[in-house]
Backbone:
């Protein structure tokens, strides 16, 4: 973890928020490379689960909803964590996060208060008055909008079951303990969808989406041997779920939840029907049967995905340097091409003309399709190492021969193989070899 945290800070992926004021616990900012990586994952997810499918549509909903939503959904009464205080040092922990020996991680004592339930919804006020009439919750999950908008989306898009509504965006939780970099924050990014089904098909649908989540993880390049599929027992599941599998990832701090898939039954739509008085039923166009649809919910945390992707693709190895027979440590992020923040680095061997003009022209042309970085400082060996460390799949070197033969050297990140390619074939070459 230390290496990843340090690399993220050093190279502008992710760093503490408001650092000049000493930071803010568990708040992080995505820097220029981090935001590219995060956006690439987010956009790939949207394509994978929404735009490439005929049966899922998307929405982008408000963070502040009517507070009645959270009463109806059960979050006001049930969205809690058990909290204990160490009687000796007064540190506060989630009871279910205590170490196995039950000792206080701060002082080593094992003298705890009785657990009390602590609600995770973050509350704020809208408008000039700070009283109960102006209180709203920041959304604790992004799912609720997809339930309350169910009828509107179904009717405006004339959708027939089964179909899904997807969303991406920030959720907020007043987590008692935050830890492990971006793993557990008080604000975090979610990507999830509610798949509305006839209850007869729930088991089949659950298996289908579990398999789709595995396929997505494979697309991200996550090795299945680093994953564990944890069937959550009765009594341990969220208040709305009849079956949940947590997909856990082997983080350096333990096997921990990365994603979850839940069978939410008709719990949410029924609750909203009762509390709002609005009809949430669906009429089958063939049988005329009327019922409240059931729901399978694949839920994927974006920040946890970013962390897993960084960890999975981080490698340290000994690699040859420019000096004959010498090696040094090479840090390389072996991101799949689609996820890499920078796809191509343009490296002219001289800052001066004519190489600079040729190199700038190549960079401008490639920018039509890809994120390009132009780097003209320090030795070529150092520049290669810098690009390896941020996961750039291709480096393009413009040297003095380029002026005559109109060719450049393309160096591959993973194999470090180098090839001489005509400038006019560069775009096609990258497309084929990506
Ligand atoms: N709508 C269902 C739902 O929100 P959840 O298991 O509470 O379910 C879904 O959260 C996902 O959100 C988790 O699998 C995890 O990836 C991510 N997540 C949950 N709490 C988080 C936190 N405090 N910080 C970062 N990610 C979190």
Residues:
């Amino acid at each position: 973890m230390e290496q990843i945290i340090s690399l993220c800070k050093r190279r502008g992926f992710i760093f503490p928020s408001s650092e000049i004021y000493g930071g803010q616990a568990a708040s992080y900012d995505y820097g220029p490379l981090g935001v590219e990586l995060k956006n690439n994952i987010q956009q790939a997810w949207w394509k994978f689960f929404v735009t490439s499918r005929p049966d899922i549509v998307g929405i982008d909903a408000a963070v502040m909803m009517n507070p009645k939503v959270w009463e109806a959904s059960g979050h006001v009464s049930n969205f809690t964590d058990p909290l204990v205080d160490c009687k000796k040092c007064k540190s506060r922990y989630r009871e279910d996060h205590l170490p196995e020996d039950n000792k206080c991680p701060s002082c080593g004592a094992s003298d705890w208060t009785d657990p009390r339930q602590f609600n995770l919804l973050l509350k704020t006020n809208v408008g000039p008055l700070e009283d109960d009439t102006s209180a709203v919750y920041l959304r604790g999950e992004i799912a609720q909008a997809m339930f309350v908008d169910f009828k509107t989306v179904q009717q405006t898009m004339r959708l027939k079951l089964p179909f899904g509504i997807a969303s991406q965006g920030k959720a907020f939780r007043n987590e008692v303990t935050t830890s492990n970099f971006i793993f557990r924050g008080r604000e975090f990014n979610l990507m999830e969808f509610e798949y509305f089904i006839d209850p007869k098909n729930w088991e089949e649908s659950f298996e289908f989406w579990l398999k789709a989540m595995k396929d997505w993880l494979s697309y991200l390049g996550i090795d299945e041997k680093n994953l564990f599929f944890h069937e959550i027992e009765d009594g341990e599941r969220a208040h709305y779920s009849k079956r949940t599998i947590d997909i856990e990832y082997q983080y350096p701090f333990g096997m921990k939840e990365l994603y979850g898939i839940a069978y939410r039954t008709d719990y949410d739509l029924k609750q909203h029907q009762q509390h709002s008085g609005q009809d949430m039923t669906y009429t089958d166009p063939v049988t005329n049967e009327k019922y409240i649809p059931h729901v399978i919910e694949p839920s994927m945390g974006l920040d946890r995905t970013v962390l897993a992707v960084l960890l999975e693709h981080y490698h340290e190895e000994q690699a040859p340097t420019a000096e004959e027979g010498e090696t040094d440590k090479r840090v390389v992020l072996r991101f799949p091409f689609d996820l890499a923040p920078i796809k191509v680095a343009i490296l002219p061997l001289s800052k001066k003309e004519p190489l600079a003009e040729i190199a700038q022209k190549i960079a401008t042309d490639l920018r039509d399709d890809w994120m390009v970085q132009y780097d003209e400082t320090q030795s070529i060996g150092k520049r290669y190492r810098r690009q390896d460390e941020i996961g750039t799949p291709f480096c393009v070197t413009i040297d003095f021969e380029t002026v005559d033969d109109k060719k450049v050297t393309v160096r591959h990140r993973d194999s470090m193989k180098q090839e001489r390619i005509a400038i006019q074939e560069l775009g096609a070459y990258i497309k084929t070899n990506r």
Summary: The pocket of glycyl-adenosine-5'-phosphate is lined by residues 141, 143, 173, 175, 184-185, 188, 190, 192, 257-260, 297, 299, 301, 303-304 (CB under 6 Å). The first strand starts at residue 14 and ends at 16. The chain has 13 helices and 23 strands.
